[in-house]
Amino acid sequence: MTGTPTAGTAEPAHVPQHTRPVNRWTVLVVLCSSLLLVALDATVLHVAVPAVTEDLHPGAIQLLWIVDAYPLVAASLLILFGTLGDRVGRRRVLLMGYGLFAGASAIAAFAPSAHILIAARALLGVGGAMIMPATLSIIRQVFPDRRERAVAIGIWTAVAAVGAAVGPVLGGFLVEHFWWGSVFLVNIPLMAVMLPLGRWLLPESRGEQDGPWDVFGALTAAAGVLGAVLGVKDLGGGHGSGRLGGIVPLLVGVALLVMFVRRQRRREHPLIDMRMFSRPAFSTSVGCIVLAMLALVGLELIAVQYLQLVLGLSPFSTGLRLLPLTFAAMAAGLFGSRLLQRLGPRTMVSLGFLLTALAVLGLTVMGQHDRPWLLTGGFVLLGFGLETTLFGAYESMLSEAPAAQAGGAAAIGETSYQLGAGIGIALLGSVMNAAYAPGLARVPGVPSSSSAEAAKSLGEAYDVSGRLGGPAGAALRHAARHSFVHGLHMTLFVSAGLLLLGAVAALRLPRVMECGAAAAAAVAGIPAQADPAEVPARERALAR
């Protein structure tokens, strides 16, 4: 493999300019390490939710925000920092993200209240938004050959799966041996290593710098995404669809996003080239990423609570139960490039959705008793199916985008990933709450005030039943467990429906994976009949 270009080579401004020769696979190792940290923090708190609930006593909505603030804030700022990295340097923004991530982790670890913990998680989201777009955009630049890029993205998605799944294991170990704040302290030594390593090994990379940077557009997109998801969360909190507190931010968010799209279409130098969405492969890939993450993250959070609060497993044992999902996802990512070349994007992504839906439906037989083999089989199928879907969608999306728009395309991909994760927690959590709460409305011998408190969450129900004691406490505990399992089943059915919708949507993807010069020229925006002598050097390099 050849190394990436050096500062001495004559390259256009949008091609990565490096201070020293660096092999592209070394760059991939550093980028995947960055991604591992961000993915780890997205799930490391999940098994600590019961401990956080016991210590800080957050309400149901606060509990959702503690978990959800990180992906939502990250999603809202990805376009801002992705395009900023194109202008000032992706490595520079990446290193600033490392520093902010470490500082926010220290605040979160010692948060004395739910509000401060939510604020710290939001700061972590800002740091994550600085880190994430750089990984994909640099991969798009340093791997112009689609076959090599498919291998790189396969490794990238496998690392993301490892981080997301190792998070609960690491979090469970730390919660059992220390306290819930230790799940954040682990970030600090990792960032202390990544800062000098990234500064030394990562080459600087910039995109096109034509025209002014649209700061107002970036802020409009950030506010629009945040407002839309905030509205969905509030409406899904069990307060009723007529609540103005949910409708207003949702409408404002949608209006801001529409304004952002119109503004980008009118500008000569937009932050995001909206013409990319006119390509079926690009827009379909983005939609598939949203649907896949919507199903995955919400289910994982509910599954963690099921394993701990219903089956009574320890946090560490809960993390170990999720390891089969990790190994299956790793296998799908590592072998994804071969599968993609043999099956093509359409078949691969559709098959991934169908396998995941089958796994989710199989998990509906879960009840109040442990069935380890059933859970293991379901998690294996779930991990392989979802990772197959994400790999095929990411590879198709990134390959469909021109290299000059790598930063914008990466921001769109990561925004869809984080937005799907955030809405998934809100939507599936809301389905769970809606199915769980009615079962506690009338429990014999339990006062209505106690039932209302127990309806907030299963952890709250256990606390209330402990205070009540006697037959009333036992009845409340039994009713809460039964209602939670019922809510889990309803959530699984909704998730399966969304996955089947994704399988149908994936039929718009290309049938085969095109890797030749014609495909590279099409991505670069060159007519298929163009004479090779008329193709600029950058586009010929892409075709090689």
From TrEMBL:
GO terms for biological process: response to antibiotic. One of its GO terms (cellular component) is plasma membrane. Signal peptide: none annotated. The keyword Repeat does not apply. It is a multi-pass membrane protein. SUPFAM superfamilies: MFS general substrate transporter. Gene3D superfamilies: MFS general substrate transporter like domains, Multidrug resistance protein D. Residues 27-514 form the Major facilitator superfamily (MFS) profile domain. The keyword Disulfide bond does not apply. It is found in: Cell membrane. CDD domains: MFS_MMR_MDR_like (cd17321). This is MFS transporter. It comes from Actinacidiphila oryziradicis. The lineage of its organism: Bacteria, Bacillati, Actinomycetota, Actinomycetes, Kitasatosporales.
